[in-house]
Specification:
The complex is a heterodimer. Chain A is mainly α. Helices cover about 65% and strands about 0% of the residues of chain A. Chain A is built from 15 helices and no strands. Chain B is mostly helical. Chain B is elongated. The chains are: A mainly alpha, B mainly alpha. Chains A and B meet through helix 6 and helix 7 of A and helix 1 and helix 5 of B.
Chain lengths: ~525, ~210
């Protein structure tokens, strides 16, 4: 077997000190998958507790900690770093025809900062947990005795990891594209990652200072968020959402970026509306900074502000809709093949459409008064984050798995898992839309008897989901145990990352590639037909 | 291949220019994050000052304008020496480069020294942040809020000065070792950019905190 990045150089130390973007991507992948597992365990616990009103398996205090940890782990340790830091780290330089990211050592530093932040979060868990919800709303977060200090410190540290990744990717995209690759010959994945990186760089520092202010409030009682001392708790919400709303686009834009890659490959067609998709990523990034107030419609902010934020929120639907329609137009009259990545991509289209449209319900002022802080919000958020980002992440994981590890997985089991995950997801979360619209509040331990059937329904769905993920873990693990068997280009894709070996050699390419055609040029036969799998 | 002749060129860059440009993009982005980090504090200060204008006006009278002004001059001078350091690196004047870097570090030290005098004065009078505030004889309540921000903003800025001293010392070590030439002086350039930002933040902090009308 030819030497590749996995086999040379050898040894644990060579991995821990590596500056190779591919190895760092793999280390990130392992870490975020572990975080996803941990957050998933908490999710299952939440669902089991909600099987019956009142106590099922845990006390109300424990329940508060469990849903907080589910949220905090999934947001800060899994979904924000998920696609950019793992898959993005691995494939972005390959797609651009580069040997590495612009700042390889900064890349490694960002990984270790991530690990440090994760350890702090674990520290917060074992020293009593956190019971504020992942949003750390004041004044509760500045007065509760749980480990808010450590958890905010963890999120603060993780922010640096995110910023460093963002800086790295922007510089990489600006300066390390292969000869001939103009901005509009870049794969759309790079555009999505670029838009994401902009938000990471511009929004994350504000979260950093906000979390520091919470720490200061807890240690010194500085007064800024405490109304008794002349401060303003609503100001915290403004600060927090000024980051955390753009942050949901940090989570979804990379997902959209993956979908833009997968759909043309498995439709055997040039992407429809390349420029529109590219610009819509930037448009989403820009508008994302202007909509944070829609989290605060019932906080008492001025009616004028509410109306403006509501209007701006509706604007987000335009670039999102542009993308969805372009993807569908790409599939139209394409030669569609339904392998695992495409199954997840189609799941994304369906679920993201529901998630996006219900976002408009919540952005409408009058409707939001009814739906605010109910399960409708929970369901909407999970439809865009899990139905959107996680499905896209799984599409990307299955799409690039042979490239990353040089091994194919069982297509049959992959389809079974995809079906279970799709069904399980809908059973779990469609029911929560109904619960929410009937008045089930979010984060409640106890509920009225009339809600129980739907809660049971949702909990059963979470078990189907879990089964799907266990099957996935199984066949991916099995694939890693066997020798390398993946061809360089198993899908017959035209992107640069498929023009090198699977797994790629240490410095990515034998020769610097010269880009002559567009990134989705499926109008001609694939250049290496002998390597296409039968 | 001229790789052997340019040991500073990292393997994944094709030209020295590409590497220098990437470095500059990275540094400017980092500076943007710094501005937003401080931006949160500036916004918080503005809103709290709007809520408690009298308290902020009274509280700021406890600050020593003379020392604040001297520190402003000190930092501006350090910016000048930093610019001259970059110029010296560009033009391969190694001795001058070393002298200017040393001067910049010295100015930074003076700044921190004066800050220390100011801080110990405040500690002595009980002008402390949040719950530790215990200044006697206040006529307007709520002045602790001003000092919460005073210490957070100048403290965070002070940490950045310390970080700057570390970064400049690292550049100094490399300058003494003779790493830089007219082809390669990116580290001096980038640390210079950072240092100017730290100065600029002080230029805003000084009138904001010391010169309230």
């Amino acid at each position: 077997m030819e030497p590749n990045y996995l086999s040379t150089p050898r040894g644990l130390k060579s991995w821990l000190t590596t500056v190779d973007h591919k190895r760092i991507g793999v280390m990130y992948l392992a870490s975020i998958l572990f975080a996803f597992f941990l957050g998933g365990v908490f999710a299952i616990l939440i669902r089991i507790e909600l099987l019956t009103p009142g106590r099922t398996i845990m006390s109300a205090e424990t329940y508060n900690r469990v849903f907080t940890l589910h949220g905090a782990i999934m947001i800060f340790l899994f979904i924000i770093p998920s696609i950019p830091a793992s898959l993005g780290n691995f494939v972005l330089p390959l797609m651009l025809g580069a040997k590495d990211v612009a700042f390889p050592r900064l890349n490694l530093a960002s990984y270790y900062i991530y690990v440090a932040g994760a350890l702090l979060a674990v520290g917060a868990m074992v020293t009593g947990g956190v019971d504020t919800g992942w949003t750390f709303y004041t004044p509760y977060s500045t007065t509760t005795n749980s480990s808010v200090g450590l958890m905010t410190l963890a999120a603060f540290v993780l922010g640096f990891s995110s910023i460093f990744t963002g800086i790295n990717f922007i510089a990489t995209i600006h300066k390390l594209r292969a000869p001939g690759m103009s901005w509009f010959k870049m794969p759309l994945f790079a555009w999505g990652i670029y838009a994401t990186a902009i938000i990471q760089v511009l929004a994350t520092p504000v979260l950093g200072i906000t979390l520091l202010l919470i720490l200061m409030e807890r240690v010194f009682s500085i007064g800024i968020f405490n109304p008794q001392l002349g401060g303003d708790p609503i100001l915290f919400q403004h600060f927090f959402w000024f980051y955390s709303h753009p942050a949901v686009y940090i989570m979804i834009l990379p997902g959209m970026a993956i979908i833009s890659e997968v759909i043309p490959v498995f439709s055997r067609k040039t992407i429809f509306g390349y420029k529109a998709i590219a610009y819509s990523s930037i448009a989403i990034a820009a508008v994302s900074f202007l909509v944070w107030g829609h989290h605060m419609f019932v906080s008492g902010q001025s009616q004028l502000a509410n109306a403006i934020f509501s209007f701006l929120t509706f604007l987000v639907a335009i670039p999102s809709g542009v993308k969805v329609f372009n993807w569908i137009a790409t599939m139209y009259k394409g030669s569609i093949s339904l392998e695992a990545p495409m199954l997840y991509a189609i799941s994304f289209l369906l679920l993201f459409a529901i998630g996006g449209l219900t976002g408009l319900f919540l952005g409408a002022l009058a409707v939001d008064v009814h739906l605010h802080d109910t399960y409708f919000v929970v369901a909407h958020f999970h439809f865009v984050m899990m139905g959107g980002t996680v499905m896209a992440f799984l599409a990307g994981l299955h799409y690039w798995w042979p490239k990353m590890f040089g091994r194919t997985y069982s297509e049959k089991w992959a389809r079974v898992a995809a079906a279970l995950i799709f069904v399980g997801f809908n059973v779990t979360f469609l029911s929560q839309f109904v619960l929410g619209s009937r008045g089930m509040p979010r984060r409640y331990y106890n509920y009225l008897d009339q809600f129980q059937p739907l809660h049971v329904f949702s909990t059963v769905g979470s078990w189907i989901l879990a089964l799907g993920f266990f099957i996935m873990a199984g066949y991916l693990w099995v694939s890693l145990r066997k020798p390398c068997d993946a061809p360089a280009n198993p899908w017959g894709a035209v992107g640069l990352e498929w023009q090198t070996g699977s797994p790629p050699p240490e410095h990515n390419f034998e020769h610097v590639p010269l880009v002559t055609h567009g990134p989705y040029d499926y109008s001609q036969p694939v250049s290496e037909p002998e390597e296409v799998q039968a | 291949m001229s790789v052997a002749a340019e040991p500073f060129l990292q393997h994944h860059f094709t030209t020295a220019e590409q590497q220098a440009d990437a470095g500059k993009i990275g540094m400017w982005l980092f500076l943007v994050t710094e501005i937003l980090l401080f931006g949160g504090l500036f916004v918080g200060f503005a809103i709290m000052q709007g809520l408690h204008p009298e308290a902020f006006l009274q509280a700021h009278r406890h600050l020593d304008r003379t020392l604040g002004f001297i520190n402003t001059v000190v930092l501006l001078s350090s910016s000048y020496t930093m610019v001259m350091a970059v110029w010296s690196a560009q033009n391969e004047r190694r001795k001058r480069l070393i002298v200017y870097l040393l001067l910049t570090i010295a100015f930074a030290g003076v700044f921190l020294g004066i800050k220390y005098i100011e801080y110990s004065h405040k500690f002595h009078e009980g002008l402390l942040p949040g719950r530790f505030y215990h200044h006697a004889g206040d006529t307007v309540p709520g002045q602790f809020m001003f000092f919460s921000f005073y210490f957070m903003m100048t403290g965070l800025h002070g940490l950045h000065i310390l970080g700057g001293i570390v970064a400049i010392s690292w550049v100094l070590r490399r300058a003494i070792r003779g790493d830089f030439s007219h082809k390669y002086y990116t580290p001096v350039d980038l640390v210079g950019l950072y240092w100017h930002l730290v100065d600029v933040i002080w230029i805003y902090l000084f009138p904001l905190l010391y010169l309230i009308k």
